[in-house]
Amino acid sequence: MLINVSGINSSTALWYASRATGVVALLLLTAVMLLGLLVTRQGRLPGLPRFAVSGLHRNLSLLAVAFVAVHVLSAVADGYVKIPLSAAVIPLSSSYERLWLGLGAVSLDLMLAAAVTSLLRRHLTRWAWRAVHLTAYLSWPVAWIHSVFAGSDLRHGPLFLLAVACAVAVVGAAVWRMAAAAGDVPRAERVGLLMTAVHARDKYKHRERTLAK
Amino acid sequence: MEGTTDAVTELPRLLPPRDGTPGGGSGRGSGGASGGGQAHDFRAHAMRHGMLTYRDRIGTLIGEAEAAGLTGRGGAAFPVHRKLRAVLDAADKRRRTPVVIANGAESEPASDKDATLLWLSPHLVLDGLQLAAEAVGADTAILYVHANRAQDVGGRLTEAIAARQAAGVDRVPVQLATAPARFLAGQETALVNHLSGGPVTPTFVPPRITERGLNNAPTLVQNVETLAHLALIARRGPGWFRSVGTAAEPGSMLATILRTDGQPRITEVPLGIPLKDLTGDLRQDDAVLIGGYHGTWLTGAQASGLTLDNRSLDQADARVGAGIVIALPAGRCGLVETARAVRYLALESAGQCGPCLNGLPRIAAALAEIAGAGRYRARAQTVTDVERWSGLVSGRGACHHPDGTVRFVRSALRTFSAELDWHKRGRCSAADTRPFLPVPQHTARSEKDWI
Amino acid sequence: MADKLLVNPIDCEGHGACAELLPEAITMDEWGFPIVDPRPLPPSLERHARAAVSACPTLALRLLRE
């Protein structure tokens, strides 16, 4: 849908707005991923209460959705290139930058699914919610690829470094999370392990001599 | 009405009588055979008790169960009519056909009465199962039994079920299922979880299994002894059932008695029978354990004045439970025995709930110290810790495993307080260090032990 | 018309957000798990109770209308 705007200036403004909100959205989504990974390990942010980790994860994800919405709408509204609104959610339906925009749509779809299922979590089974939420592991890399290849902003200069930093952070955090989880004791073995631990500790804890009966 | 000669000669009801002699019980250890032919044989059963009479109407039995005042014999003593009614109502409301399960898991190590009943009178249980299925309109019946027994109970039950099939007695086909060898295997939500293909670990309530159980259907889980009583009530009537026992707690029950000689005996007794009739004479400082490892230790003095019914036992913070009565022989240390049992109980925790997972192992370790493991002195701080952890653990799990364990522990520290004083000084009064309470060796080590 | 708090101890992993948001009714035991006051909740705390329920990462905390 091509919106007729008067003159090049508004169009350029919209185009820049789309690019800028795109970068901010990527940053927010990176933060959301990092926080989400932290929640799974019951990690804490220094100086902040426990509820802040999951609270920030949720609030920032909603903020990210808002930024993505502006990012999409401003790109559609801008008249310089023809991008139908449907291309935001239906992959490969735009003629402009068909593949890279398509990936953006994929990522947005997954993101919306994760957000909506989380808002409606009470009405879902644990498994259903979790299955959808796990698609974040796909959604973020796809969003990153879209960000880097759908324009050229993130392929040069400081924004390039930013993109790399985001990737390193998320990959690093994900690897840390998997490694830590691999060290978790399976439920059925927890009791046995704790029994051994508390019995051994007490054995060495005090050194009183044996007393005769 | 309680324990009169007439009532006593009426017993046993569930178990076959010994050769010719009315009343009394039957041991199960050697042969455990009874007079009157092979009582587990279907024909012998029909001769003694008559044929199973269906009511031919859903719900009729519920009124009879209510009139009889039958309560569950699995330990919780929940009124049977209320459970039947709950399942029937759920089935109507949700338009789902219910499932009935006969619970013969008997995962309490010190109990043997269900296995004995299934060995000697399987047809009473199977009759009760059919009647319960009819009462709630179920189309699926499962008999859930513990595999690890001295006798091949599973084999005998398979034969019994086949014999009934051949005779066309059963309206609902009965499936036999094996309970894993876990302490929690008989817990009703764990049982349903296991039969659904999962581990035998409890699930959170709500929803109750009477609402939503196996395959999401309203599920009735009833102890096998309860079903056997139901089978007889259907034939002889509620008034007959009430002719023994107390007014508030009518009927008879199977009890596992472990006397000081260490020989377990299964006896059918009227509710309200004096404890000392079961244990033999008790001295002041003897100790009696009522209700198994989720039960209560009592002193000989206390036990001498009490009867086997909840109204009486309540005064001593005890419950009838599944009818386990154990008399600790003189010269044994109650603290050592308790510590051994609690170690087992801790290892049998499902490990799903933070308080239980954290509390029971610590309580077990503390009791080991109190018992004198490693010959260390029991410290006052350790006793305080046990009390604190007991308070933290009780009522905060998805099932009553921590609660029962805490009751057992607290009663031990109360009943054996004199012994505890000795242990605080690094001494123990026990002359005999051989283990007395039956505690299984094998405990859960990994995920596969729970399947 | 009062509400009651209920925690599913199987789902609870001891994240601790609930105790921070509703200290009037939830305290943490020495192992990091919530001890929930079983008494009915005063209406003034309802908003905070809802925040606590919402903050639980495993949805182990529930508010029951009674």
Describe this entry's structure for a reader.
The complex is a heterotrimer of chains A (213), B (451) and C (66). Chain A has one domain (8-205). Chain A contains 7 helices and no strands. Chain A has helices at residues 8-40, 50-77, 98-119, 126-133, 136-149, 157-182, 187-205. Chain B has 451 residues and is α/β, with parallel strands linked by helices. Chain B has 3 domains: 5-12 and 38-241, 3-Layer(aba) Sandwich (Rossmann fold), CATH 3.40.50; 254-328, Ubiquitin-like (UB roll), CATH 3.10.20.600; 336-435, de novo design (two linked rop proteins), CATH 1.20.1440.230. In chain B, the strands form 2 sheets. In chain B, strands 6-5-9-7-8 form a 5-stranded mixed β-sheet. In chain B, strands 3-2-1-4 form a 4-stranded parallel β-sheet, with helices on both faces. In chain B, β7 and β8 form a beta hairpin. Chain B is globular. Residues 1-8 and 20-37 of chain B have low confidence and may be disordered. Chain C has one domain: Alpha-Beta Plaits (2-Layer Sandwich), CATH 3.30.70. In chain C, 23% of the residues lie in helices and 24% in strands. In chain C, the strands form 2 sheets. In chain C, strands 1-4 form a two-stranded antiparallel sheet. In chain C, strands 2-3 form a two-stranded antiparallel sheet. Chain C starts with a strand and ends with a strand. The chains are: A mainly alpha (213), B alpha/beta (451), C alpha+beta (66).
Major beta sheet of chain C, specifics? 2 strands, antiparallel
Low-confidence stretches of chain A: 204-213
- Which consecutive residue ranges of chain C, at least 5 long each, have pLDDT under 50? none
Distance between the termini of chain C: 6 Å
Helix content of chain C: 10-25%
* Class from secondary-structure proportions of chain A: mainly alpha
Count the DSSP helices of chain C. 2
| Beta-strand percentage range of chain A | under 5%
CATH C-level name of chain C: Alpha Beta
